[in-house]
Write a structure and sequence with these properties.
mainly alpha; about 120 residues; about 80% helix
Length: about 120
């Protein structure tokens, strides 16, 4: 399967790339860059989600999806652990992207491990 077929057949990973990028730029786009803990978390986790999803597009490994699912879970609890739950926009962004990352990662794992994905795409 070539790279173009991978990107279209593994749409969950393509969506996770977009989610990671959105998370990375969200402190600037949603104006919470001054909320240091939230912004740094968004930058780091967004970059990692993006890189893992890109890697999964070209050489799928189940562990990449599980790490993205764990990062999604982290995003859900991060506002309270990192003490930025008082900033509504940062909190909602973290939780929403966390939930989406978990759903997409688990969906991708399910498709790859249940036989829905064939060698031809």
């Amino acid at each position: 399967m070539d790279a173009r077929q991978n990107i279209t057949s593994d749409w969950q990973d393509s969506a996770n790339v977009l989610l990671g990028i959105a998370l990375f730029i969200s402190p600037w786009a949603l104006n919470y860059v001054a909320e240091t803990n939230a912004a740094l978390n968004a930058h780091i986790v967004g970059a990692v989600i993006t890189l893992l999803a890109l890697a999964a597009l070209f050489a799928f490994r189940v562990w990449e999806e599980w790490i993205n699912a764990v990062l999604g879970a982290w995003l859900i609890v991060a506002p309270w652990v990192l003490s930025f739950s008082g900033h509504a926009v940062a909190t909602r962004t973290s939780i929403a992207i966390g939930i989406a990352a978990i759903v997409l990662a688990l969906w991708s794992v399910n498709e790859h491990t249940s036989g829905h994905m064939s060698a031809g795409g």
